[in-house]
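Quick question, first post here. What does this chain look like in 3D?
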Amino acid sequence: MTGPLSCRGLMRRSLALAALSLLAACASHVSAPPAPPPLSRSDQQCLAELNRLGVQYQVEPQSASTSKACLVQNPIRVSAATIPFSRPTVAACSFVLKFDEFEREVIRPLAKRTFGHDLKEIVHFGAYNCRPTHAGRESEHAHGLAMDIAGFELTDGTMISVKQEWTKRGKGRDFLHAVATKACGYFNEVLDPDTDRDHVDHIHLDLGRYKYCIHHKT
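> Answer (accepted):
Ran it through. Tokens below.
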């Protein structure tokens, strides 16, 4: 009885060792994913500044897309700048830093002066989106350098909707028009319901190559 059992045990051990050797050989031929490129000094400084300001974010993979037309430099997933966002969104660090500055210097003080209340939330349609514009040219959303603002919620619960308030007389319209006008001093392109039908329900802000602002006053 002892002899046959020992033989079977040896065979099992031999098969197990052979399987382990095969797995090890296969693993040695599987190439590890390439390490992400190191951040440049300017990218590191951008993240350090967001940390100093208390922006709530998570670092995203260096490429938000495999397409070269949809690469985001120093991408982060941000849930709150100075004011919380209605939902997290991916954007380039440089855009978030500029938007945070715009919130602190323009939107919050303007809301307090106009309504007597601070902002509670920025309502938006998103930042990064790997797509062209409706006109067919490259969209700054594809590089995380743009965001579409749909409205704002105040601390008293008041909602200021671009779609509902832009053309209606009152404090809401005055506030939204002032936001769009002031944005021209911070962003390269500002598009709103006065621009075209594609922006009837939001204000588009971007840091792209094109410069345009219908409300810019020289």
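The longest strand covers residues 84-92.
The mean pLDDT is 85.
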